[in-house]
Design goal:
Layout lengths: L1 H15 L15 H10 L3 H7 L1 E2 L14 H7 L5 E3 L4 H14 L7 E4 L12 H5 L4 H17 L4 E2 L23 H16 L12 E5 L18 H8 L1 H8 L4 E4 L3 E2 L2 E2 L4 H11 L5 E3 L4 H8 L4 H11 L4 E2 L3 H11 L5 H17 L12 H6 L4 H14 L1 E5 L10 E6 L25 H9 L3 E6 L8 H6 L14 H13 L3 E7 L18 H12 L4 E6 L7 H6 L2 E4 L7 H9 L67 E8 L3 E2 L4 E10 L5 E11 L10 E10 L4 E9 L5 E2 L5 E2 L3 E8 L6 E7 L2
Parallel strand pairs: 1-10, 2-3, 3-4, 5-6, 6-9, 12-13, 12-14, 14-15, 15-16, 18-26
Antiparallel strand pairs: 7-8, 11-16, 17-19, 19-22, 20-21, 20-25, 23-24, 25-26
């Protein structure tokens, strides 16, 4: 009798999922398909539609969750998940409503934009990509997952893998640059870092690849704008990173705002069903972006009922904030505009994700307050963030070896970004506590030590226009605008410059000058700062420009006049320390650009893997030629090409070899090159391999990245680096969208950037 009572009690626990206190041990439950089918058999239509609903909670005050507006819907089973709620205490209160007050006790998903770290913030994704180090990138996502999961979050809306070749678009900061191959490698690393190949762990979280698809190619570089491109370009240039994330097992996908083939992605069945599920085999669920469903009304796709049915039938399972599913699908079902089978499939996918996360076994799995106190913003995580940030910085110029700086004498640190800790984490740092970030001023003082005198002056505001500065410093990322006149600010800066041996100018964008809805038509440093920089250069003192940006900027003037330029992006909470580590040579810079820096906005979009024309320039000096593909007022090439980045040492490439000049479809070639550190510092170099398909059934890019290795060489050391080439590296989508490798001639280039000139050739035979 006693054993029967124990079994009965356990059965009730399994069927009800009700746990008034967080369980120390998880409950054993049925296999996933059986469990989910049994649960769905008990659900009403309203409860099913509730699982498809993802509202934002606002930030519920601790202790008031039960009286919040969303609590009633949760108790009625009308919410599948919440986002934008932070802290384990608040999340536990809300989860308690779901698993104790709703009829079926179904736990909630809790999502957040954990984009480049949680409270320990890493460089913006564009900066992270410039490390070219997949282990470091994966580690950053793993630490982010550890911290977020310790604070109750079990789902992140990351990675963003949109290819972008137009830096006018502000969200270039949130992606990994212009290249599909590198983007795919980073997508895999991020997914693996978040999900750790095992969602049952309490420190792994569900990843969400976004924005599917083509979001990074809006017309005019304007956010949310129309996207229009051929299928061949989609599959060859823009789809690969999304597919790489799917191949890595990403658990969810977010639809993009833009249209694809004239139909908004959120309602595009070809995209969400034919490509994502049928061609790529995606098994997870699709969520809209914020209000993505009702926004299709403005696109001209019908009323809320129309667009909600369109999205569901296209293959979208979860409605973020729009509440179109919750409010209209019942009517659409009655009118046979959607089927119960389609609704059931959507519900099943969301319940399966919750099962995979272990929420049915323990709804409070992510609500351990001990972890929240001991695993967030730890010294160990901050140390790793500092090391990773230093690897992301890109040295663009270093005339006469001005850098590294000596830890002696007097340094004049000048500029509106010099003492701006709130801006160091960059855009999309929603969980960051800005007061914990390290400014460049603090970093330089601490790293330089007591033997170095550091003087500071702001020098100028971000921009002469106060309204512009307000718009560019939202979300608590103030630059504390100085009320003094520009003349007063400049006079103070020049006084500091007079007393200094070297000037470090901290200039560029503020954190929110890039990011979502921060498109720009002028990509130069704001005029107020340009005027300051020119005045500092006129003093005759050596000037180092530490450039803060969330996108490639047009710095053609600065490249001509400033002796040393270090591109710092926004390097996260430890930015000040990381930048100082590089400035003083404690870390030798090794970052390489993943997005081309243009000479002029008029060149945009610009990228290295472009197609040739029938009338290319015949000279290599950039001189204008009539009736050739060029500009009358600008050179064709970039200011800084993809893959570019200097070091305090120098690297020499020599003795490139290929194992054979022919390869068949089942064969493999080996390309080797000797790389020698010929300078005076130990350093790291990213060796890059590019391939050009010389003749194809469709036109092919002038070169494409197909491999890279980041190596460490001591001063004077030589290393032979080898790459394997197989037929998979030669494949592309032809005009019939078949993924093929065509026989013919290929050139292989190896070097330190996309202008690599060490070349070998081979033929792919039938």
């Amino acid at each position: 009798m006693k054993n029967k009572l124990v079994l009965l009690f356990l059965g009730c626990a399994v069927l009800g999922y009700a746990q008034k206190k967080p369980a120390k041990n998880t409950v054993k439950i049925k296999p996933k398909s059986e469990f989910v089918a049994e649960l769905m058999s008990k659900m009403t239509l309203d409860e099913k539609l509730g699982q498809l609903n993802l509202p934002t909670s606002g930030d519920i005050t601790t202790g008031q969750a039960n009286s919040s507006n969303v609590a009633k819907n949760i108790a009625e089973g009308k919410v599948g998940g919440l986002f934008n709620i932070k802290s384990v205490q608040k999340i536990k209160e809300v989860q308690k409503i779901a698993v104790e007050k709703s009829r079926l006790k179904i736990p909630l998903l809790f999502g957040m934009d954990v984009i480049h770290g949680y409270e320990t913030t890493f460089p913006i994704p564009l900066g992270l990509s410039c490390t070219w180090d997949m282990a470091l990138i994966e580690r950053s996502a793993q630490i982010a997952a550890k911290e977020a999961s310790a604070d109750g979050i079990n789902w992140t809306f990351s990675p963003m893998v949109d290819i972008s070749r137009d830096p006018r678009w502000g969200r270039v900061s949130e992606g990994s640059g212009e290249d599909p191959y590198l983007g795919g490698q980073i997508a895999k690393a991020m997914v693996n870092g978040y999900q750790q190949h095992d969602l049952s762990k309490n420190n792994s979280i569900l990843a969400c690849v976004k924005h599917f698809a083509l979001y990074g190619a809006p017309e005019a570089g304007r956010d949310y704008n129309t996207v229009d491109m051929s299928h061949i370009r989609m599959f060859n240039d823009y789809f690969p990173p999304y597919k790489a994330a799917v191949d890595a097992g990403v658990g969810s996908v977010m639809a993009s705002f833009n249209e694809v083939d004239g139909i908004p992605a959120t309602g595009n069945k070809w995209l969400m069903t034919d490509v994502l599920r049928k061609q790529w085999g995606f098994k997870g669920f699709v969520v809209t972006d914020f209000t993505g469903i009702p926004e299709m009304i403005e696109h001209g796709m019908g009323n809320l009922q129309d667009v909600s049915a369109l999205a569901l039938n296209a293959g979208v399972e979860m409605d973020m904030v729009g509440e179109g599913f919750l409010g209209t699908l019942k009517k659409s079902l009655d009118e046979k505009r959607v089927s119960i089978e389609t609704i059931d499939n959507a519900v099943r996918l969301i319940l399966e994700a919750k099962y995979d996360l272990g929420l049915f076994q323990d709804p409070y799995k992510y609500c351990d307050e001990k972890r929240a106190k001991t695993e967030i913003f730890t010294m160990d995580s901050r140390k790793e963030a500092r090391q990773i940030a230093a690897q992301s910085l890109v040295l663009l110029k270093n005339q006469n070896q001005l850098l590294p700086l000596k830890k002696s004498g007097t340094i004049g640190l000048i500029g509106p970004l010099a003492d701006a800790k709130e801006n160091m984490p960059g855009t999309w740092s929603v969980a960051t506590k800005m007061e914990n970030a390290v400014s460049l001023l603090r970093g330089i003082k601490e790293v330089a030590g007591s033997g170095t005198k550091v003087l500071y002056a702001k020098g100028s505001n971000l921009d002469y226009d106060e309204t512009f500065e307000t718009n560019a410093t939202m979300f608590g990322k103030t630059l504390h605008r100085d009320a003094r006149t520009k003349e007063e600010l400049l006079a103070e800066a020049l006084k500091v410059a007079e007393q200094s041996d070297v000037i470090v100018a901290a200039l560029g964008e503020s954190a929110e000058m890039s990011g979502e809805s921060s498109s720009r038509t002028n990509l130069e440093i704001p005029q107020a700062q340009k005027d300051l920089l020119n005045a500092l250069l006129k003093t005759g003192k050596p000037v180092v420009l530490v450039l803060f940006d969330g996108r490639p900027l047009v710095i053609t003037d600065e490249e001509k006049t400033v002796p040393a330029i270090l591109n710092a992006w926004f390097a996260g909470t430890e930015a000040g320390y990381a930048i100082a580590d590089v400035l003083f040579g404690d870390v030798n810079p090794s970052g390489k650009l993943t997005s081309t820096f243009p000479r002029s906005v008029g060149q945009l979009p610009i990228y290295y893997a472009h197609k040739n024309t029938g009338r290319p320039l015949s000279n290599t000096e950039g001189k204008f030629e009539k009736f050739r593909s060029n500009y009358i007022d600008e050179r064709n090439e970039a200011l800084f090409p993809f893959g570019f980045g200097l070091s305090y040492t120098t690297f020499d490439y020599s003795n490139i070899k290929i194992s054979s000049d022919k390869m068949n479809a089942s064969g493999k070639l080996k390309v080797t090159v000797d790389v020698t550190n010929t300078g005076n510092f130990d350093g790291k170099e990213t060796v890059q391999l590019y391939i050009r398909d010389l003749v194809g059934s469709v036109t092919r890019p002038v070169r494409e990245l197909k491999g890279f290795q980041k190596i460490t060489l001591k001063k004077g050391e030589k290393q032979t680096v080898s790459f394997d080439i197989t037929v998979e590296d030669l494949k592309f989508y032809n005009s019939d969208l078949q993924f093929v490798a065509e026989p013919g001639q290929f050139d292989v280039f190896v070097g330190g950037n996309s202008n690599a000139d060490k070349k070998v050739s081979f033929e792919l035979t039938k």
